[in-house]
Amino acid sequence: MIELDKIYNMDCLEGMKAMPDGSVDCVVTSPPYNYNLRIHYNEYGGRSVNDHNKYGKMFKDDMPMEEYFKWQRDCIAEMLRISKGTVFYNIQMLTGNKVALCQLLGYFADKVKEIMIWDKVNAEPAMHEGVLNSMWEFIIVFDKNDAIARQFKVANFERGTLANMLRINKNTNRHNIKHNAIFPLLLPRTLIHYFTPVGGVILDPFMGSATTAIACIKEKRHFVGFELNKEYYDNAVKRVEAEKAQLTLF
Question: What are the chain's domains?
Answer without folding.
Answer: 6-249 (3.40.50.150)
